[in-house]
UniProtKB/TrEMBL annotation:
Keywords: Signal. SUPFAM superfamilies: Concanavalin A-like lectins/glucanases. PROSITE patterns: GH16_2. It holds the Pfam family GH16_XgeA. This is Secreted glucosidase. The keyword Ligase does not apply. Residues 1-18 form the signal peptide. InterPro entries: Beta-glucanase-like, ConA-like_dom_sf, Glycosyl_Hydrlase_16. It comes from Apiospora hydei. Residues 46-296 form the GH16 domain.
Length: 349
């Protein structure tokens, strides 16, 4: 009897724990939303601004629900709701709105500036609804970031934009793109931007990640890197941008998260007669998280060695600086270098 009870409970336990943001060796979790809460409720409005009305961008068709409908859990919460299983569902629906579709978009109240001298990581676990790809013409899910300066009057693309994941028309191709400088043209070749793509294995949950590596004091050697499930597929350096002021808008200025499901627009084109709406067309998000590599993982020793290698783990083979060894040889010659290294790590961790 007990074994049967435990088996019955197992799926519930797994689902309730599935979207806890993962821990990574060498990184500290700085902020997250794992979308816990009752099914049908709005996402935490202490964390997110719910964007409403006609956005009038990219020639998109969707209208986001008005706040009073979201607050009162009316039928319009179908566009933007907690699943009750620790996920957020952004669901496009035909009918209503100005152009015949409604959908959802949220922007984080949380902002952060990538920290100098370390690696900063942001990521989200995302899946797409199970409707066939042939029924997704005109759908455009995205996980991206904008420079917070846009909230203070700086125009796009001068504010800086980092698209961590976009895909259009249900096609199993993900795009990572940066927008910057000015439009049209400019450093980021607007309005196209500078980007690359990667194949997506399927419509199930996958982790989309962006990392800033600012361990170098030389801005031209600093980088922004895009990943799918831990596989890097796009890297942009300060040297690629070639202008420090523009690089600063992407790597040294406050940014915020955006999650949205656009409908129509200049890139995907409009829905057609076979485009399906509803949960099979949604973007579902398990968590959004911001991490920062801890001091030990980014520590630079006096001999110039550092742990900036492409790994989640701090360097475990860093030799003791010669001047430190000379002092310790004089004061305590019987202590081995390996012991000193272990002591230094323990002291600085």
């Amino acid at each position: 009897m007990w074994s049967n009870t435990l088996l019955a409970l197992a799926p519930f336990v797994a689902s309730s724990l599935a979207w806890t943001p993962p821990s990574y060796s060498g990184f500290n979790l700085r902020w997250t939303d794992a979308f816990g809460g009752s099914g049908g409720a709005s996402p935490d409005q202490g964390n997110w601004n719910i964007i409403t009305g006609d956005l009038n961008v990219n020639n998109e068709l969707e209208t986001c629900p008005l706040p009073k409908f979201v607050y009162f859990n009316s039928s319009s919460t179908r566009n933007l709701q907690l699943s009750g299983g620790n996920t957020l569902q952004i669901v496009p629906w035909k009918g209503g709105g100005t152009h015949g579709w409604t959908s959802g978009r949220i922007e984080s109240k949380y902002t952060f500036t990538p920290a100098a001298g370390v690696v900063t990581r942001v990521e989200a676990s995302i899946r797409f609804g199970s409707n066939p790809i042939s029924a997704k013409q005109g759908l455009w899910p995205a996980f991206w970031m904008l420079g917070n300066s846009i909230r203070n009057g700086v125009q796009w693309p001068g504010c800086g934009e980092l698209d961590i994941m976009e895909t259009v028309n249900g096609l199993l191709t993900g795009y990572g793109t940066v927008h910057c400088d000015r439009a049209p043209g400019g450093i980021c070749q607007e309005t196209q931007g500078l980007g690359k793509s990667i194949g997506i294995p399927n419509q199930e949950f996958h982790v989309w990640r962006l990392e800033w590596d600012l361990t170098s004091s030389n801005w031209q050697s600093q980088s922004i890197k895009w990943f799918l499930d831990g596989q890097a597929y796009h890297t942009l350096t300060g040297g690629n941008i070639g202008n420090q002021a523009v690089w600063n808008t992407l790597a040294h200025a406050p940014m915020f998260f955006i999650l949205n499901m656009a409908v129509g627009g200049g890139w995907p084109g409009n829905p057609n007669g076979v485009t399906q709406d509803g949960y099979g067309a949604m973007m579902e998000v398990g968590y959004v998280a911001h991490y920062q590599r801890n001091n030990m993982a980014a520590m630079k020793f006096a001999n110039g060695n550092s742990s900036s290698a492409e790994t989640d783990y701090p360097n475990t083979n860093t030799p003791v600086a010669p001047e430190m060894m000379a002092l310790l040889d004089k004061e305590a010659p019987s202590i081995s270098a390996n012991t000193i290294t272990r002591m230094a790590r323990r002291f600085f961790s």
